[in-house]
Amino acid sequence: MILNISDYSADTSPQDDSLFERIACGIESQGYIILPAALPNQIADSLLHYLSILKEERFHQARIGRGLDQTKNPFIRRDKIAWMDDAHPNANLWFDWTAQLKQYLNRRLFLGLFSFESHFAQYNPGDFYKKHLDAFRGESNRVLTLVTYLNKGWEPDQGGELVLYAPDEGEEITKVVPTFGTLVIFLSEEFPHEVLAADRDRYSVAGWFRLNCSINQQIDPPR
Ligand SMILES: O=C(O)CCC(=O)C(=O)O
Ligand SMILES: [Fe+2]
Whose CA is nearest to atom 1 of ligand 1? Predict the structure, then answer.
C-alpha cells in the first residue's frame, strides 16, 4: 500500500481546522458555541483513560472564588474536581489540541490567549453547580471557557444539563445534555451558566484560556 503525506496528517490539519473555524465563527458571532460529539474521539478517549487511572484522593471538594479567597460552599457547588497535570502522558492529546485551538483563535480573533488550565469534575447523583460566571470583569484573566463531557450512554432524561444563560442575567439560551465529546465554549465573563443535578455520576472536563497576568516576574500566577 502506498501512503501519501496526507494519510499521516489525518489527525490534524484539515478536519481540525474546520472544527476550529466553526468554534471561531461561533465565538465571533454570538460569544458561544455548542457542538455535540465534536471533540475528536481519540482525545475524548484519552481523557476518559486519564480519568479512569486518577485516584479518588486526587479529587477534592470544589471551591468558589480564586486564590486566597477560595471557599467551599455546598449551597453553590457540590462537585469534586481534580486539576490536570499537563505533563501527564494521558493528557498530551488534550493539551496539544487545546494549544492548537488557542493558536487558531489568537490568529483568527486576536484574543491574546496565553495559557490554559483544566480540571476534571465529578458530579455524583444530586450534585449541582448553581448559576455563576467563571470570571468577573477586571478580577480574573479567564477569557474563554471550554467544557467537554466524558459520559457514554447518557440519556436525555437523566438530568445533569448545563444551562447557558444570555449575558447580563438574561434568559436561558439552551440546555446542553452532557453527552460524550460534546463541546461547549463561551466567553467566561459574559455567560452565566449552571449545572443541574443528575441521577447518575456525571463527568466533565472544564478548562479556561487565560490572558497573561504576570506580576513581579511571577508568570501567570496560580489559580
Ligand atoms: O460541567 C459543566 O457542565 C460546567 C462546569 C462549570 O461550570 C465550572 O466548572 O465552572
Ligand atoms: Fe462554570
Answer: 204
Q: Which amino acid is at 112?
A: G
Residue 97 in 3-state DSSP? helix
Prediction ipTM score: 0.99
Ligand 2 midpoint to CA 102 (Å): 19
Measured CA to CA, the distance from residue 79 to residue 40 in angstroms comes to: 26
Question: Of 60, 84, 193, which is best to mutate to test ligand 1, by the most ligand atoms within 8 angstroms of its C-beta?
Answer: 193
Global pTM value? 0.88
At 192 the three-state DSSP class reads coil
**Could you name the CATH architecture of 33-64+81-210?**
Sandwich (2.60)
Place of cell 500566577: 221
Q: Using one digit for the tens of pLDDT, what is the confidence trace for 165-201?
A: 999 878 999 999 999 999 999 999 999 999 999 999 9
DSSP class of 54? S
Q: What is the DSSP letter of 114?
A: -
Instruction: Measure 173 CA to ligand 2 centroid, in angstroms.
Output: 15
- CB–CB of 203/176 below 8 Å? no
Question: What ranges do the domains of the chain cover?
Answer: 33-64+81-210
Q: How many CA atoms lie within 13 A of 36 on its CB side?
A: 8
